Amino acid sequence: MQFELTSEFLDSLKAAIEKKDATFLKDKLHDLYAPDIAIIFNQLDLEEAAYIYELLDDDTAPQVLLELDDDKREELLKTFSSKEIAEQLDNMDSDDAADVIAELPEERQEEVLSHIEDIEQASDIAELINYEEGTAGSLMAKELVSVYSFETVSQCIEEIRTQADNVDVMYAVYVLDNNERLIGMLSLKKLIISHPLARIEEIYEPDVQFVKTNTSSEEVAEFMQKYDLVVLPVVDQLGRLVGRITVDDVMDVIKETAEENIQRMSGITDDVDSNDKLWRLSRARIPWLLVGMCGGIVGSRIIGSYEEQIKIHPEMAYFIPLIGAMGGNVGVQSSAIIVQGLANNTLLGDNIVSKLFKELGVGLINGLICSLLIWGYAFAIEDWQLAATVSAALLTVILCASFLGTFVPLTMNRFKINPALATGPFVTTLNDIIGITIYFLMGRMLYTFF
Amino acid sequence: MQFELTSEFLDSLKAAIEKKDATFLKDKLHDLYAPDIAIIFNQLDLEEAAYIYELLDDDTAPQVLLELDDDKREELLKTFSSKEIAEQLDNMDSDDAADVIAELPEERQEEVLSHIEDIEQASDIAELINYEEGTAGSLMAKELVSVYSFETVSQCIEEIRTQADNVDVMYAVYVLDNNERLIGMLSLKKLIISHPLARIEEIYEPDVQFVKTNTSSEEVAEFMQKYDLVVLPVVDQLGRLVGRITVDDVMDVIKETAEENIQRMSGITDDVDSNDKLWRLSRARIPWLLVGMCGGIVGSRIIGSYEEQIKIHPEMAYFIPLIGAMGGNVGVQSSAIIVQGLANNTLLGDNIVSKLFKELGVGLINGLICSLLIWGYAFAIEDWQLAATVSAALLTVILCASFLGTFVPLTMNRFKINPALATGPFVTTLNDIIGITIYFLMGRMLYTFF
């Protein structure tokens, strides 16, 4: 059902490219959809990709271009003339074309625009690239069908006939007042089943949800997801309809946001993927490693201040990794639950305190279980002082980590910092340090007094 | 633009419920969409929710029911009679109704079904609850419009008129052959702009993507996302059209999968959220804590075997947390990149070895930076043997963690285990143990020979 690229198939394509066997390649590629062809492209070198791109038909080629990895697309576009790029853009939706052109060097953008044959498409693209990245304006496309409320159903269908060439997929017709302001919508279903002479104003749905051009992409994504929308109209500051956002663009935003969160949680600062260059991957990962190292150094200072004690009771050192690891694990668990709650908007101002208490409750239950088990183990292996130290420290560390794991992301969120950062190395490092401090403090107390 | 529930608004609603001020409540709720009302419901107690539910109009009430948290819906439905539940189901899409009824105790399902007035709806629901959870069959709805290829455009429009009552949102008409087998589709746009006497077989699009009833939900989600589909037809084993899946259902699957992955990465075994009960939250989190504890105990045994050395060189103990934390951090970073690559299908059989080398390259760069820094620090503070031990161990640990962070998720994936598990406590624990072993081994070697 779904295409899976096998190495045999890839090899057969590479062999055919080598032999310039255009018939074989055209035949194989014809059966595939653009996203699948893009997967193949990502496995080819530039020369192979450029050759095979020429063989694609006019409808498929621009779609493949859109589906490519950013790096691959950039490489490929460098081999194209401005006129060739313009031809590709002419066959794209305006939003996609604007995305591609925005990736080009600025001096080239104008040149490419001047080569686009369809003047309306060119002006649409020119408008769209002006919207700030990460806003509804940068997500929207200009292709839409709109009618005035005073028109009739048959006039509206006539309008669709003339505008339809530009609009690939159509879900609804937007209804405007005399000042081009969006006042409602009309589903195609309603249009089909209404009398041809009915006036739009009698049958349209005035309750239409929309966003403004400066609404953030994340908000748009949340909005469409929450209200199960397939398409969302975009208006300017005066309420005039200027574009529409479709669900597929928003799914990309959702996916990117989720990936970004996972990367933040894992201590990766930049948005990278495994195909990125070595130095970019290294650079995205070093900052949090350095933070972790500073944490480790602080930890070493703390342990260092108990040197005498370690000499007498070297067994104190045995459980350092356990205490550190458990603090980290509990902290990550707690903050993951909170980050998820924040993302789903299920955390309200008032119940934050109750969440904190709940987390402490969970910490207490799991902390008691763990510290009881470790008490048994340490008592069997070592002396009762160590058993008491480890188990009491473990319980305290788990409670502390539960508290911090809840409190830190909530606080970060309040200060508009991505709380996913807190689930990662930050909370782990913090808990490591606090855990060791608690452990040695308790150890000194117990060994001194008993 | 987007509704935000404030505690003032919530308080005013609660006060109105207390006073049974139906006019005020109806007025306030009328302005809101179902997902927003559901957010309010999740903050009310059962009695308040049950009272306010009665005030919702017939269209909104079932939508609110669908948007509620599972626990809340279960509670609320317990206060309803079977007949009342049946009324709600009658106003839902068949797929949503099937989801709700599947949550009821089995003996109640039949009773509720028998109360549904619309016989077709009842039989659709009865069919849908038989599909296994997590398959396309369980995601699909029965509401769709289909025509035979031999019909004309005007017959087709007539068909839409009669079937349209059941289908809320319509994107396309499916085309069937005489044996009810799916052979293509027709966009509403095409239908509107075609001549009324044109035959469907002359204008339909034969290239239609579909899935089978037993395709897994994740595969469906990936499929629709990859090919940017808004609606996807579902066929049975004989190729007969039996339902359709819409993008909103799939967005829920995508969101749930992403959340599940984040939970697995954070060492949470069950799908929980912060509103779940205390004991459920505890139970979902204890397994990986116990694994982490076993790791800690193994670590303690390893350190224990170097007791004599710690007595002589207690400074060896200082850097235990640093070594453990860095191994964990690097392992998590590496596996996050791989898990993401696996999810995006950008990792192909052939280039896994090259990924491994790339990760080792990143590990080498970052490892060299970190170990150089720690060498300088340890040399300044302690002796050269310790500096050499810590920095050499750190480099080795980072390389090891890079390797394991790449290798473990890839191996898990090969054995069909969710690789996100590897990014969490599993890789951290493993790297902790390996890190400590390397560190003490190197320390003994250096202190013994020099």
Structure, described:
The structure is a homodimer of 450-residue chains. The first copy, chain A, is mainly alpha-helical and 450 residues long. Chain A has 3 domains: 7-135, MgtE N-terminal domain-like (MgtE N-terminal fold), CATH 1.25.60.10; 146-248, CBS-domain, CATH 3.10.580.10; 278-449, Tetracycline Repressor, domain 2. Chain A has 23 helices and 6 strands. In chain A, helix 16 runs parallel beside helix 23 (420-449). Chain A starts with 6 loop residues before the first helix and ends with a helix. In chain A, 46% of the residues are buried. The interface between A and B is large, with 128 and 127 residues.
In terms of topology, how is this protein built?
The structure is a homodimer of 450-residue chains.
Chain A: H1 7-18, H2 22-30, H3 34-41, H4 46-55, H5 60-67, H6 70-78, H7 82-90, H8 94-102, H9 106-115, H10 119-128, H11 136-139, E1 146-148, H12 153-163, E2 172-176, E3 182-187, H13 188-193, H14 200-203, E4 211-212, H15 217-226, E5 231-235, E6 241-246, H16 247-265, H17 278-304, H18 307-312, H19 315-318, H20 320-343, H21 352-381, H22 384-414, H23 420-449
